[in-house]
Amino acid sequence: MDTPLWSPSEERIAQANLTAFRAAANARFGLRLDDYDALYNWSIAEKERFWRFLWEWAGLTGDLGAVDLLDGDRMPGARWFPEARLSYAENLLAGAPDDTAVVFWGEDKVKYRWSGAELKATVSRLQQALKAKGVGKGDRVAAIMPNMPETLAAMIATTSLGAVWSSCSPDFGIQGITDRFGQIEPKVVFAPDAYWYNGKSHDVRAKVAEVLKDLPTVVATVIVPYVDKDPDLSAITGAVGFHDFMAPHPVAEPTFERVEFDHPLFILYSSGTTGKPKCIVHGTGGTILQHVKEHRLHCDLKPGDRLFYFTTCGWMMWNWLVTGLASGTTLVLYDGSPFAPTGNILFDYADAEQVTLFGTSAKFIQSLEKSGLEPMKTHSLASVRALASTGSPLMPENFEFVYRSIKQDLHLASISGGTDIMSCFVLGNPISPVWKGEIQTRGLGMAVEAFDDNGHAVRGEKGELVCTRPFPSMPIGFWADPDGSKYRSAYFDRFPNIWVHGDFIEQTEHGGWVIYGRSDAVLNPGGVRIGTAEIYRQVEQLPEIMEAVCIGQEWDGDVRVVLFVVLREGMKLDDALAATIRKRIKDNCSPRHVPAKIVQVTDIPRTRSGKITELAVRDAVHGRPIKNTEALSNPQALDEFRERTELSGA
After folding, report:
1. Which of 233, 385, 577, 610 has its CA 20 to 30 A from that of 176?
2. pLDDT grade, residue 339 (50/70/90)?
3. For residue 530, what are the contacts with CB-CB under 8 A and spacing of at least 6?
4. Which residues form the AMP-binding enzyme C-terminal domain (predicted)?
């Protein structure tokens, strides 16, 4: 295809933060960086200079010290800004808009907003209350919370003390919560009385009471009223209501504990489908630097803009979203089903609150297209300048759907990174064209390559996504991994001193990137590596198919491709449809992509952040135990994949 789906106007390019940043770098350092590629190359070649200049250009608060980087040739082991002292919370509150800092919708049930002053006042009172409970630098505070303003305030109050924040969403099961928080020994827990999902309330008080039995370090449990304004807390030993927790403490000016650049800020978790989740510890300075770079330069967010991302508090995109305050944006928070009460609620919200960046998942966009909804015909979306998609690869046809049925003049940014770095390796570029099916660019300061099996960078062919130089948002490490062996094993064992991310990726002729799925889920029939996303792209275009999952089944000394499909309600997989599926895959991929077996199922297992879990399906098919079904939002779906008679013969 020779024509991009979208190109920014000259005016938009001229007004972009990226353009201003490039001009400022040229002026400051006497450079001639004429385009994005030149800026990117400079950010890699002069990485220390780039990251310090970004801090200064963004006007962030704190002191970086005189040293940029120690042991910069080591991964892991590089230490950014070892003399720095800064506060994440201070930067968030300094940027929070005075008029409206945060807007909230809990489906169509609850709606309210806080000004910057209200947010700051709530943070100050929570800060004092936490301090009164003995919370200080390095202590952990955990939350089983919906994505609502009280969660935001509790996080800012926690980090203002130099304490460490960790959260999950209230739909997690008891084991899923204790597998996470039991490892990090929190001192305080925040939870709601209940939450809304798909129009129904779900009480979590009994679950919280059970969780607390396995968290002996907790000295205070704070219950935020959400569904009930005055919930009964008698069943939760030692629980206190959110407002009662703050009541003894008057509004005051918040104080901020400035900490080291690598001081723990957030603890996030791997999906945990192969055992207890790994506790991934992210540092203060790397988090804010990376997020501000992505918000301001790659998303072109400016003070006064409104930032929305559909996420729960159990997904890294929540942490990414809330850092938006540091760039002067209003946070637009939503909790509940994205399709309740109708499929249009998120677009209703975008129009009502004049959202600037609309963030969602590839799955949502795919579901929207399958449902037949066309927001372009029902909504204005005049304020929306950019749409971001992540969670899984966005298929080329979904790119076309966005421009055909959502909005034509729109920067569509497919982005990809992960919990491991709490940010992106590849993402959007607001001053460059959008090509069908391609992620636009590597992130500034991120030395991303595709490596072949011999560790050589390749272009125009698939390889492992690697990062060859250190960057500030690398994790500090894993919790309870004192010698760093688990951390090194997770990312650095395959190629020494190289971060191996675990994605199967290819660089295109336009300089963009295509992700073909997780490399540990890559199919290998006859020794040929096939990305599952290639098959999904073909299958999910068929109107009969709602979604699919593909695995490699060990068979007769080799691996054969097995495809499971969820069909539209009332439909059955017959020989004609199976032949249509195979022909489409063969014609558009290759004969090796064609599944040996196609099997109908009614549901596909997903992690709690909504990602299809191919590895769990593969283990179920092979009769292997699934070590941690609590990591799945619908573990019962695995039952359909066990002992399938269709897979027992040739």
Report:
1. 233
2. very high
3. 522, 523, 524, 561, 589, 592, 593
4. 541-611
